[in-house]
Please model this.
Amino acid sequence: MARIDELTNCPECNSSWDGGDIFETLRPQKWCENMSDDELREDVHKHYAPPHRFSRLVGVEVRGGYDGVSFWECPDCKARWDRFTQRKVVNAHASSGSAVE
Model:
C-alpha cells in the first residue's frame, strides 16, 4: 500500500489532493517577474521534489508531541491518518492517544 502522502486522491472521499503545478503557481508572482521561464523552471526543479506539484493534503502537528507532522488530514472530508502507521484514526485531536480504525 502506498503511503498516504504519496496518494493523489483521498481514500475516503476521493477528492483530489493535487494543488497544481508549482511553476504555473509561481510564474505570476511578483518576486518571479525578473526570472525567465527557464530560470524559474530550474529553481523549481532545484527546490521542489518531482513531480513538481503542490499537494492539498494537510500535515497536522500535535503540540507537545512529536516535533513534526503526526497526522495527515484530507482538506475536504477531514479524515485523518497516522503518519507513521498509515492507519486511519478517529478523534485525532490534540492528544496523542487517538483510536485507530
User: Anything to note?
Assistant: The CA atoms of residues 8 and 83 lie 16 Å apart. The longest strand covers residues 69-73. The chain has two domains: 14-56, 57-101. Residues 14-56 form one domain.
